[in-house]
């Protein structure tokens, strides 16, 4: 998994790409550490470029949500497609996150 | 095979060159692979990368290097081989041995065995599923589902099984960080990191595909089925795997005290690949060859008459005999009819609808369900008033209908027509069979136009280049070709060609052009002038309306430049081997064979010790991938960049891009696929 971050007007946008699976532990940790100090109101996780996610990847998205809760930051998942969209639906992530197209 | 005292089973083994001979010998001599290694004779072939092994050679097993990397993972789709094993002195296969079952054991259509340390960082589940897809073992439409399930089972076995990591309960960021550190430690330890993970797949008779994932952890007690399959909820972050797997498979079961999980997938047989995939065609052998001598003449045809009343059978038989049909067989009820079909494989069936045990509808359905009899004509007999039945019998697969009471002339006329059709179809099939084998020969010849891995690697080394290439022909013959032309000790010519269309015509054109290229020894001309000359010759040879795209270029190691000319070739990519940054070069120009006096511009770009060059045919950017889209220009550049940045050591760029492409492309490509990379090596050897 690779990512790019961008912060503007209190929103941190993270573009994720590639495969997001259990082996992406350390890159995900780096990502969280990178965006934490931004102090944004909203994290937008743009997953349009993610082609595959497994349950560990879903777990990491939940972790991002927990991080957000600590600082009252809302987390939005944007642009899920194909397999990723299907996984988010199966796991009922619509009840946990704001999902955007 | 007769198991005489001296008889040994011969096996070809593909071996990664980097492996130590002592490790290879130890693995071959152990009983990890075969029950009785002393009864096996081994012929080994080594290769620096999977590119080096011939497409046409079949291997019993492939030894992956210790610490398998992405390039060797690619061997799953590149080699005609069913068993892939990481060879390392640290690994103990224990109760998973022998990996290749001998007599009596269930043989696997694919098995992959590697250490946890290697597997953890690789997209094993994805490549495994791609390999199954390419072998025609799973249908394209269920591939995505299978991949999700295998990924979960694989992650579970690695993390909970082999690494014994506990990820249950609510994870905080701190415990997540701690988990990451612990994962690293355990991967490095030989207790956990060297444990083996084994993935196998086989196809059951009913068409179901069975995939197992086996680990060497402590095992666990599988939760009872009362455990809900609801995946939602957020109590645990990582424990969603099993319910998810269950929701994706036909069935899930455990063995080896929870250290093996078996997933079964149902799939529509009709959706399986039936085409000439290289692996499948080998498996099927000559099974479906059509004997084209059996019904040269309709009168020799075998006709089955299925009717429960003896009188009816006799009447039909006497009508048919009077017209010269003497090869008659009979069935007295529905079940008998099916038995007779199996025994005699008739060329035509005359079927009564109302029969005991199994009626005509049931017989029709049963016959059509078997692909062997899909084309057998069935004439159903029915009474005029059964209007509903007439529609139904066609739905169930009857070819034609004949009204009772039977009219002799009509019966004979219909019988003749259907037998003649049948005869034509059979002859056509036999013809196609012959053409197919000739096509296979032509394919081999065409593949031989391209340089062999040994050849291009060696040539590359002479010029301080690491060259990699992947070529996959479309389902029929194609029009792609590439090659290298050494000019002098510091200049190397390279070309890539794509003839419009594919099939026999395109293939013949590649032969034409190949001989033109190699008969003309003036390769050191400016590329533009070279293409102009080639175009003039080719224009004279090519029928109107046929054309080719081509790029010809010269890498000059002394002047550190790449000069080239392009005849509407795909835009070559020039990039930096260290940063992965790359850009497209201008590929514009008139295709070859269109106008006689076409002009080609010679273009020049710097090409230094830090550069790479990527050439490819349009199949790379014009194949619909699993997301329903083509690989965009931008996406190809980012794929290159990420591949270079993520790799820790020197890689074969073309092979890596091809592997990623194959993961997402349909198993049967509509057009030839060629990709070639030329990467400057850090220290040019020859100059």
From TrEMBL, chain A:
InterPro entries: Anti-sigma_ant, MlaB-like_STAS, STAS_dom, STAS_dom_sf. GO terms for molecular function: anti-sigma factor antagonist activity. Residues 1-101 form the STAS domain. Belongs to the anti-sigma-factor antagonist family. This is Anti-sigma factor antagonist. Transmembrane segments: none annotated. Pfam families: STAS_2.
């Amino acid at each position: 998994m690779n990512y790019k971050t961008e912060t503007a007007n209190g929103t941190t946008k993270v573009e994720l790409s590639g495969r997001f699976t259990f082996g992406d532990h350390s890159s995900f940790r780096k990502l969280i550490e990178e965006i934490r100090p931004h102090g944004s109101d909203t994290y937008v996780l743009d997953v349009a470029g993610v082609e595959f996610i497994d349950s560990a990847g879903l777990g990491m998205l939940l972790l991002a949500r927990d991080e957000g809760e600590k600082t009252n930051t809302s987390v939005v998942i944007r642009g899920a497609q194909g397999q990723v969209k299907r996984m988010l639906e199966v796991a009922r992530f619509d009840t946990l996150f704001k999902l955007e197209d | 095979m007769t198991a005489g005292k001296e008889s040994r089973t011969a096996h070809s083994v593909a071996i990664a060159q980097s492996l130590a001979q002592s490790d290879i010998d130890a693995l071959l001599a152990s009983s990890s692979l075969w029950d009785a290694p002393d009864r096996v004779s081994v012929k080994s072939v080594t290769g620096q990368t999977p590119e080096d092994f011939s497409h046409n050679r079949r291997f019993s097993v492939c030894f992956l290097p210790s610490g398998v990397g992405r390039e060797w993972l690619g061997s799953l789709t590149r080699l005609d081989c069913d068993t892939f094993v990481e060879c390392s002195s640290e690994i103990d296969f224990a109760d998973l041995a022998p990996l290749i079952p001998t007599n009596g054991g269930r043989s696997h259509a694919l098995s992959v065995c590697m250490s946890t340390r290697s597997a953890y960082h690789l997209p094993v589940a994805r490549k495994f599923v791609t390999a199954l897809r390419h072998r025609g073992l799973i249908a394209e439409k269920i591939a995505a589902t299978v991949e999700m399930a295998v990924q979960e089972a694989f992650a579970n076995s690695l993390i909970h099984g082999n690494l014994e990591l506990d990820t249950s309960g609510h994870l905080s960021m701190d415990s997540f960080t701690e988990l990451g550190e612990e994962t690293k430690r355990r991967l490095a330890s030989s207790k956990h990191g060297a444990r083996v993970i084994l993935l196998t797949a086989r196809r059951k008779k009913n068409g179901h595909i069975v995939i197992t994932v086996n680990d060497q952890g402590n095992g666990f007690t599988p939760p009872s089925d009362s455990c809900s399959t609801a995946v939602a909820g957020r109590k645990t972050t990582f424990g969603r795997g099993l319910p998810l797997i269950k929701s994706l498979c036909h069935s899930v079961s455990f063995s080896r005290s929870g250290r093996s999980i078996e997933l079964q997938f149902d799939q529509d047989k009709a959706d399986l690949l039936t085409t000439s995939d290289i692996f499948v065609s080998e498996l099927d052998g000559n099974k479906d060859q059509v004997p084209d001598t059996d019904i040269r003449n309709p009168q020799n045809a075998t006709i089955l008459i299925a009717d429960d009343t003896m009188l009816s059978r006799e009447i039909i038989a006497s009508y048919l005999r009077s017209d010269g049909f003497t090869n008659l067989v009979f069935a007295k009820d529905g079940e008998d009819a099916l038995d007779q079909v199996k025994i005699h494989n008739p060329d035509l069936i005359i079927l009564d609808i109302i029969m005991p045990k199994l009626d005509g509808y049931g017989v029709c359905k049963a016959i059509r369900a078997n692909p062997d009899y899909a084309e057998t004509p069935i004439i159903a007999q029915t009474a005029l008033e059964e209007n509903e039945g007439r529609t139904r019998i066609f739905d169930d697969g009857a070819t034609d209908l004949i009204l009772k009471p039977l009219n002799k002339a009509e019966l004979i006329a219909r019988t003749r027509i259907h037998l003649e059709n049948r005869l034509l179809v059979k002859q056509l099939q036999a013809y196609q069979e012959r053409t197919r084998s000739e096509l296979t020969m032509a394919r081999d010849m065409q593949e031989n136009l391209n340089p062999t891995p040994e050849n291009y690697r060696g040539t590359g080394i002479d010029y301080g280049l690491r060259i990699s290439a992947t070529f996959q022909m479309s389902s029929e013959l194609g029009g792609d070709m590439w090659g290298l032309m050494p000019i002098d000790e510091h200049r190397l010519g390279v070309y890539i060609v794509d003839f419009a269309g594919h099939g026999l015509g395109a293939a013949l054109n590649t032969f034409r052009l190949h001989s033109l290229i190699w008969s003309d020894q003036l390769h050191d001309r400016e590329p533009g002038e070279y293409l102009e000359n080639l175009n003039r010759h080719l224009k004279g040879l090519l029928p109107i309306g046929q054309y080719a795209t081509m790029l010809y270029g010269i890498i000059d190691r002394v002047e550190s430049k790449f000069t080239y000319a392009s005849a509407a070739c795909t835009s070559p990519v020039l990039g930096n081997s260290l940063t992965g940054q790359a850009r497209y070069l201008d590929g514009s120009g008139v295709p070859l064979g269109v106008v006689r006096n076409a002009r080609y511009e010679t273009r020049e770009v710097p090409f230094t010790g830090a550069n790479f060059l990527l050439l490819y045919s349009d199949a790379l950017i014009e194949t619909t991938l699993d997301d329903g889209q083509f690989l965009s220009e931008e996406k190809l550049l980012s794929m290159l960049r990420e591949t270079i940045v993520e790799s820790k050591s020197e890689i074969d760029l073309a092979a890596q891009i091809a592997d990623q492409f194959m993961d997402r492309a349909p198993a049967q490509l509509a057009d030839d696929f060629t990709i070639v990379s030329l990467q400057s090596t850090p220290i040019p050897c020859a100059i």
